[in-house]
Design brief:
The chain is mainly α and 180 residues long. It has one domain. It is 72% helix and 0% strand. The chain is built from nine helices and no strands. Helix 4 packs antiparallel against helix 5 and helix 4 crosses helix 6. The chain starts with a helix and ends in a 12-residue tail after the last helix. The relative contact order is 0.16. It comes from Mesorhizobium atlanticum. This is Ubiquinol-cytochrome C chaperone. Belongs to the CBP3 family.
Length: 180
């Protein structure tokens, strides 16, 4: 699988992966999330928003075949490499990184299951509850969870109509999060 994606056209495919990942990171770093919607501007808060945006692209590409499926896998790999790198930058020791990576991977896949179920059922209340549980677990009531749930639903709809070919070529578009 990687031979086709990263064989002879390695540089072109690396550029596609880098472009997609940069767009995902930019969407996850929208200022509104942290300034107006009270997502914690901490390593864990940023992990939550990046996880959410990676999930949205994975959700869009789920069930695709060929290059699109390969792109989805490479993006997941890139995400976890980035998380590993971030842990090391935070000063986590070589011995501690694998344990933290396992925990963060469990967190990511647990969240994707909750978000999938809520989106499949078109249940914004359940989605807002899952987001609040994950993004601000110790904060008590979080009124902005419904705003984030609306954003996720909007992003999911907009991603659903983006051509697979466009995403596989390195372009993914997220909606702008708007202040209230």
């Amino acid at each position: 699988m990687f031979q086709r994606l990263f064989g002879r056209e390695r540089n072109a495919n690396r550029a596609i992966t880098d472009a997609l990942y940069a767009q995902i990171v930019a969407a996850a770093r929208q200022t509104v999330f942290y300034s107006d919607w009270n997502v914690p501007d901490t390593p864990l808060g940023r992990f939550e928003m990046l996880s959410l945006h990676i999930y949205l692209v994975q959700h869009r590409l789920h069930g695709e075949q060929g290059v699109a499926a390969e792109v989805a896998q490479v993006l997941i790999d890139e995400f976890f490499l980035d998380v590993d790198h971030s842990l090391r930058e935070l000063g986590i020791s070589d011995v501690g990184v694998p344990k933290r990576m396992k925990k963060l991977a469990r967190m990511f896949y647990g969240r994707t299951a909750a978000y999938d179920e809520a989106l499949r059922e078109n249940n914004r209340v359940a989605l807002a509850a899952a987001l609040a549980r994950n993004v601000r677990p110790d904060a008590g009531p979080w009124p902005q969870a419904s705003l984030l749930a609306d954003y996720v639903c909007d992003a999911s709809r907009k991603l659903a109509v983006q051509p697979t070919e466009s995403i596989a070529a390195g372009t993914v578009a997220f909606p702008a999060a708007e202040a209230t």
